[in-house]
Amino acid sequence: MKLLDLYAKLKKDINSIEKELERSIDVDHPLLRDASLHLLKAGGKRIRPVFVLLGGKFGDYNLERIKHVAVPLELIHMASLVHDDVIDDANTRRGQLTVRSKWDNRIAMYTGDYIFAKALSIVTRLENPAIHRIMSKALVEMSIGEMEQIRFFYHTEQTVRDYLLRIKRKTALLLAISCQLGAMAADAPEKTARLLYRFGYFAGMAFQVRDDLLDLCGTEKEIGKPPGSDIRQGNITIPVIFALEEPRLRPALLEELTRIKACDGQTDIHRFLEMIRGSQGIARAEALASLYIDKAIAVLQELPDIQAKKDLTGIAHFFGNRSY
Amino acid sequence: MKLLDLYAKLKKDINSIEKELERSIDVDHPLLRDASLHLLKAGGKRIRPVFVLLGGKFGDYNLERIKHVAVPLELIHMASLVHDDVIDDANTRRGQLTVRSKWDNRIAMYTGDYIFAKALSIVTRLENPAIHRIMSKALVEMSIGEMEQIRFFYHTEQTVRDYLLRIKRKTALLLAISCQLGAMAADAPEKTARLLYRFGYFAGMAFQVRDDLLDLCGTEKEIGKPPGSDIRQGNITIPVIFALEEPRLRPALLEELTRIKACDGQTDIHRFLEMIRGSQGIARAEALASLYIDKAIAVLQELPDIQAKKDLTGIAHFFGNRSY
């Protein structure tokens, strides 16, 4: 199944969320509106709203209520990207100029602050404090994750566990609560919401591992940017951590990493990419992604047999095989 | 009355809030904890928690509940300062190194993100969605205010209204909701909470006008930094806007502002300060601050005669005369 087929089925509701997203950032401040709109129009797969909608199908599906969760979760994702771009000195994302490059870092910082605040102010329209709590706690974890990322830049002694905790905070957590809060906003049973959280978590972990694989193995055409962007920023991902465990590879790889770090990432990384691609790190990371997908699908077994369950299964397989 | 006398009466509860503030940022991440603690230890007058406590006295005062408002409001203030310092390239605040100068801008950005998120996650422990809504909406307004500040840097055609709206968002709003949410967390009547909001708003406007006056008229000893820091950053405050309205002064003042802007604030501002100090802008701004204090005190008349009302009156007078 293709992700687009699924989107076709949800099209009406996704369009409605898209309109609501635009409305949510239609602020009476030219610079802030332009920067936010620029960010929104840069697109994205809107996976978080899709997870919210599908989570909602396990309860009393009411788009008007569910919107108040779907919109904030996508806004939080957008805001985290714009702050990420400040850290990464990124000039483009998805082929578009970033806010920090089109305007400047200060504008990017405050645009992110504004969108974070807006997200929380929208979700508080729901009279359900538990939902507010879960969303703000996730924001706390995400911000710790951002700091972790900086702390582990070019850190060759990091463990698999360090990496997993980092991608949980960076990616999996927001996807997990997207499924969970969709269910909660639709008053689904607590157990259902909890299972959906776990599904989103496992699917999110697989998604990020594959994303990190793509950055190392994809072509520029496939990933929309030159391969190896992660290492240029100092971000050591799981295939690299695995490769560092290979005694025959480790000394040369360490040397190469020291060299790249010394150049602050502004150097030819051809040799580094070759080493990783020739290592067991790739196959081991692929196996890890598959393991997470299996876990995600296993969780779904415990949920009622509705169409949304098939759709989530489809998304999980899609995450497991993604090569775009 | 002196502010310290008031603090003596509230000392036990303020100490309890202070401990809770420390606990709130005790995160299992060395860099984040150090940066947050550094920020906390840099001090501040804790006016927001004091407003919360006094607001709470108008209802069923319960420190355990009120804490969940007092701590987040001080955290929001701290987080906004750390993001401010990034914008202002500030190296010191209250005589201490800023986070951005002790670490770097990226650390400062994420420390701010973390503290904002933490604030919201603490307030959501209260089962009162209206409180969550008011706090997150204030954050939205504050972030718009920050962008407004950038937009109006060295903008000599701004109106008094532009300025007032900006300081509302920058200062008065958070003080207003401190009083209001203290009352709400103590289940005070709705009308009481609304009046307290208005008190905090007027007092906050007076506070900021006097703060802006101090930056122009105070000595380095009084204000802990060289006078004229605002204009060096491009921040045109109300005495300057008033002075620009004087035909005999306007041309020379505009010329001086153009020169300071061209040097990006890194120039001798002696002549600028002399012009403003010799203008009607000072007296007019003082009158404006007094007007706001009168309004704040008038609002208090409508509230029951309890000790907290006397304390708020004392604070209002203190704001009206501050010269520290």
Automatic annotation (TrEMBL), chains A, B:
The keyword Transferase applies. Its cofactor is Mg(2+). It holds the Pfam family polyprenyl_synt. SUPFAM superfamilies: Terpenoid synthases. InterPro entries: Isoprenoid_synthase_dom_sf (IPR008949), Polyprenyl_synt (IPR000092), Polyprenyl_synt_CS (IPR033749). Keywords: Magnesium, Metal-binding, Transferase. CDD domains: Trans_IPPS_HT. Belongs to the FPP/GGPP synthase family. This is Polyprenyl synthetase family protein.
